[in-house]
């Protein structure tokens, strides 16, 4: 009978020990943050990336065209300056020629 009494009184103690040891175990791992992408999501993502690539190419073409226009413009400015200088030189020579005739 004593053994039964000891067993009955020790059961709550054992239950408490089991409960505590169960709580003291490692916590369950957190759910993974990465979600498996569906085919539709992958398609949308790749289309978005393709649009960015196309937009980048468009920008690059604009830069190249703008640089070309600037080079052409600078060439025309240089040619224009040369023409102005030559014209001013001709005008000055003509004025000097006129002055020498008038004397």
Automatic annotation (TrEMBL):
Annotated signal peptide: 1-24
Species whose genome carries this gene: Methylomonas methanica (strain DSM 25384 / MC09)
Name of this protein: Lipoprotein
Taxonomy of the source species: Bacteria, Pseudomonadati, Pseudomonadota, Gammaproteobacteria, Methylococcales
Keywords: Signal
Domain of life according to the entry: Bacteria
């Amino acid at each position: 009978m004593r053994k039964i009494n000891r067993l009955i009184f020790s059961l709550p103690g054992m239950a408490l020990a089991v409960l505590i040891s169960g709580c003291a175990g490692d916590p369950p791992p957190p759910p993974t943050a990465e979600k498996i992408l569906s085919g539709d999501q992958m398609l949308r993502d790749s289309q978005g990336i393709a649009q960015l690539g196309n937009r980048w190419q468009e920008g690059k073409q604009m830069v190249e065209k703008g640089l070309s226009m600037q080079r052409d413009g600078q060439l025309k400015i240089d040619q224009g300056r040369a023409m102005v200088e030559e014209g001013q030189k001709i005008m000055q020579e003509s004025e000097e020629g006129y002055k020498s005739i008038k004397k």
